């Protein structure tokens, strides 16, 4: 792409709009790591604050590398594990970015009201959806869950936070990539219930008839 040399001569308001529009939706993988160097005098309530910091394999947005003005005007901010005195952070845009957590999203706990897009990979993790519900990600508009097998999604069927946002909750089979939304989940579980009841009814009728007579 050719360089637009007159750009610095544009009015500041217009340049600021350009930097803001330079942000693109990203998938940001975030986890936390152990920091060490704990001060023995730190309060017990501050123990985890001293231990952990955020890490990410997602590249820093290109607009933050352009110039000082682009960094200042871009719609990205620093995300910390708990407090702004930590040595490490991740650049994020809460409006556009999809956050990925591998089995755990505790690193977002302090910013849960600002999270709008979340992807949770629970293929190889023991995870209770009720724990997620208690964290009150009340402003989610998009939620993806990666599972080992789509049949595992049945555990989400009666979770209270699903019905209000049917089309935005997507389940992904980690092996095949097949996707299923919560409406599809509802249909699947209802079919399984009908099949189970039919089987139990047939099994009960067979028991009532008693054993089949022995051949003469």
Automatic annotation (TrEMBL):
InterPro entries: 2EXR
Signal peptide limits: none
2EXR domain residues: 4-99
Source species: Metarhizium anisopliae (strain ARSEF 549)
Protein name: 2EXR domain-containing protein
Organism domain of life: Eukaryota
PANTHER family given in the database record: 2EXR DOMAIN-CONTAINING PROTEIN
Pfam families (alphabetical): 2EXR
């Amino acid at each position: 792409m050719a360089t637009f040399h007159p750009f610095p001569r544009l009015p500041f308001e217009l340049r600021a709009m350009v930097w803001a529009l330079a942000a693109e939706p990203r998938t940001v993988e975030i986890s936390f790591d152990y920091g060490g160097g704990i001060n023995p005098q730190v309060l017990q309530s501050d123990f985890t604050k001293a231990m952990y910091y955020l890490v990410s394999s997602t590249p820093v947005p290109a607009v933050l590398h352009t110039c000082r003005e682009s960094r200042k005007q871009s719609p990205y901010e620093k995300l910390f594990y708990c407090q702004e005195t930590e040595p490490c952070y991740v650049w994020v845009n809460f409006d556009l970015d999809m956050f990925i957590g591998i089995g755990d999203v505790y690193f977002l706990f302090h910013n849960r009201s600002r999270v709008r897009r979340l992807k949770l990979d629970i293929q190889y993790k023991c995870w209770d959806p009720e724990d997620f519900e208690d964290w009150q990600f009340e402003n989610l508009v998009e939620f993806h869950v990666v599972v080992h097998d789509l049949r595992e999604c049945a555990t989400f069927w009666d979770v209270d936070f699903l019905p209000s946002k049917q089309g935005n909750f997507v389940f992904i089979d980690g092996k095949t990539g097949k996707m299923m939304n919560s409406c599809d989940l509802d249909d699947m579980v209802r079919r399984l219930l009908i099949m189970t009841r039919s089987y139990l009814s047939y099994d009960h009728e067979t028991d009532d008839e008693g054993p089949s007579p022995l051949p003469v």
